Each structure stands twice: as structure tokens, then as C-alpha cells.
Amino acid sequence: MTADEMKAAIGQETVSDWIEVSQDMINKFADATGDHQFIHVDPERAKATPFGTTIAHGFLTLSLLPLISMKNADAPRLDGVKMGVNYGGNKVRFLAPVPSGSKIRGRSKVTEFEEKRPGQYQYTTETTVEIEGSQKPAMIAEWITQVFV
Question: Is the pTM of this model over 0.85?
Fold first, then answer.
């Protein structure tokens, strides 16, 4: 879509497909980050916690925002993008644990869109990550992306 169409899409909510957060995904994230706390990687010990099972790292959930975006076919996208980069976040809140084997999806809306300089745009997306079968979301994040056309 054009820059004007992106501006017109501000506030429109879209929803991604479901993504399974498997124990294998959690284990690989633990290996990548060095965070091997038992609540993430030891199913037997995790059974004795209030969670009753292993849970995903909060930062794993946050790191899935690009995949959630890719799995959101209706999300507004600027035409002609050659490259996109993460610019940072305004706020992130981890509200509920994501149990191993559960499915998550993102409910997203663009809240800001602006041209920074010719061919460079910045937009902010607010995404609520839902857990299938749960009333409480796993995370709410306000994330900033820059794209170059």
C-alpha cells in the first residue's frame, strides 16, 4: 500500500495466524541466550511450580513479533520495501506465562506512521499476544520498525 494508505490504516486491528510455542523452540532459545532456568527447560521440575509445566521466556515471546507479523496476512504493509529494521520499543509488558506447547497469536494495529526522510518510514505497532484458550494475554508490546523503499 502507499504511504497515504498506511496512514489511513492507523488504528485498524488485524490478527495473525496461531503459532505453536514448542518445548524445542524454548530449548533453542535457552541455548541462544544462556537462560536455562528450570521453569523453561526442565519439565519435571516445572511440574512443581504454579505453572505446572515449562513456560516460554518472556523475551522469546517478544522475539516472535517478526514471525507474528509475517503470519498476519491482513497487516498493513508499505509497497516497495527493500529493507526493514527493528528500531526499538516504547513499552513491553509480560502479563501471563506462555506454557510449552501452547499456541499464540498477535492482535495488532499500527498506531503511528511517518516519513523520516525520503525513502525511509517509521511506524509503531501495538501488538497484544494472545494465548489460545486463555482470557489473559501473554504480552502487550509497542514496537517501532523502520522501512526503506
Answer: yes
